[in-house]
Each structure stands twice: as structure tokens, then as C-alpha cells.
Amino acid sequence: MKKLKRSQRLVDMTHFLLEKPHELLPLSLFADRYGSAKSSISEDLAIIKEVFEGEGMGELQTLAGAAGGVKFIPRMPADEASSFIAELCQMLEQSDRILPGGYLYMSDLLGQPAIMEKAGKLIATAFYGVEIDAVMTVETKGIPLAYATAGQLGLPVILVRRDHKVTEGSAVSINYVSGSHKSIHTMSLSRRALREKSKVLIVDDFMKMGGTIRGMVDLLGEFGAQVAGVGVLVESEVADVKDRLLHDYVSLVSLGEVDARERIISAHPGNYFAGRAQ
């Protein structure tokens, strides 16, 4: 890269850090990239750190020593998170989302990268400081949210199949009970997809009784893996929470009444802020 003015270098360094969240970047990388002394790079990073943390964009961690460097940890400040969740609730309360049978249309939200990017950042923020090796979801509608979350964490996505694909190689399959319909389904995961004893964050777009997510938890057990956490975009309120198959999770939106006859939808913030310091 050609020699840049300091102002140009700051812009490029900021973009570089934003593109590589949770990745440890040695100072020598920046020194070589800009042809500058490490002392100058350190001064630049101090400026970027002040802006990132002052604006609530995230944390810029500095690790000393020969193997050290800097690592950017994205975060979403509480006021921005609250505003975004309120917008999600308003969008979900649109009456034209009600489908026959009382189902809710959400595909348009899941297909908007800007919305998924914010939702992914919010879920990633909820699990700040938790050791995670991969993000898992089940095909298909949860995929955009899983990739958005994984992008903020700098982690790979593990995709659970409902039908085993020959291109996946040998796989582990389990049966699970759908919490909403009490019917038996099958999910599978390629043996090559996940290392044993990995710590996995499960992400899904919608949860009612929690049967699908419970299935993913059981599937992880077959790999000797641990559940680092569970994040869902929307949870549906149930008459008796004791019937839910999962109780430890983070939700952005809680869906209340869906009245197909009156075409009324009630949505309010989920448990994201419950007992969580932002």
C-alpha cells in the first residue's frame, strides 16, 4: 500500500478493524501495511480506541508481548439496542403479516441484510465475554441471522440439516419432538462440521415451545460439545412456560397475541435486557 497521510491511515485502519472482529492483529501487520513505526501505529490505535469505546461501537483490546496485538470486539450500546428492538416490534405488529392458520410472515425481515446485521450484532453483544467456537442453526430461515451473528463474532457457522445430504459425508442424526405440533422430526449434522468439545452458540429465528432448539442441544451432546448460549430473534409467548422445552435463552422480541380474526398482533421486547448490563 502506498504511503498514506495520518488521516487516511486512521480511516483505513478503522475499516480494517471493523472487517476483522475478534481477530488478534499484530502491530507489525499495521506497521508493514502502512510503512510506519510501531509507535505511530500505537498512537493511531489509541485514537481509534477512544472513538470506538466513546461511541459505544465496541471495545479495542490491546495485548502486550511478542504474540500480542489488538482485537476489536463489536458491541451495540443499550440505547441503540432498545431503539432497534422497538422498531422490530413495530414491524412485526403489521396486520398484513398474519397468514392463514394464525402464522406470522417474517421472511421479508430475515431477507434484509441491514436488519439481520443489527440483530446479529445484538445477539453477539448479549454473549460478550462468553467463550464460543462456532454458531449453529438449523436450515433454513435461521441461516441469515446465524451468519450475521457469526460475522460479528468472527466465527464459522454450523448448519444442521433436516434431511441428510450425501455431499455432507457421514453424519450424526437424531429424532426430536416439535414443541408446537408434538410430532417427530429428524435433524442431522456432518461429522466433519464440528470438533468435539466445541463451545457452540445456537441461533434461531423463531421459538415457540423450543423443540427444535432442544433438538440441536441434544445433537451437540452427540459430539461432546457444549452449549455456550441460545439466541432467538422472536419468541412466542406460551400459556404455561413450564411446557417450554428450553428456559435459558436470549430473545430480542416476544410475540404475544396473534388474533387472525381481528388481525391484531401484539409484540414487545423479549428478555434481552433482563438482568443484563449493557
Summarize the structure.
The protein is 34% helix and 26% strand. With 278 residues, it is an alpha/beta fold.
Explain the overall architecture.
This protein is α/β, with parallel strands linked by helices and 278 residues long. It has two domains: 6-74, Arc Repressor Mutant, subunit A, CATH 1.10.10.10; 78-269, Rossmann fold (3-Layer(aba) Sandwich). Helices cover 34% and strands 26% of the residues. Strands 4-3-7-8-9-10 form a six-stranded mixed beta sheet, with helices on both faces. The radius of gyration is 21 Å and the shape is globular. GO terms for molecular function: DNA binding.
What's the structural blueprint in terms of helices and strands?
Layout: H1 6-19, H2 27-34, H3 38-54, E1 58-63, E2 69-74, H4 78-92, H5 107-110, H6 113-126, E3 134-138, H7 143-153, E4 157-160, E5 171-177, E6 184-190, E7 199-207, H8 211-222, E8 226-236, E9 250-259, E10 264-269
Parallel strand pairs: 3-4, 3-7, 7-8, 8-9
Antiparallel strand pairs: 1-2, 5-6, 9-10
Helix pairs in contact: 1-3, 2-3, 6-7
Count of individual helical segments: 8
Number of domain units: 2
Pairing-aware structural class of the strands and helices? alpha/beta
What is the makeup of the main sheet?
6 strands, mixed
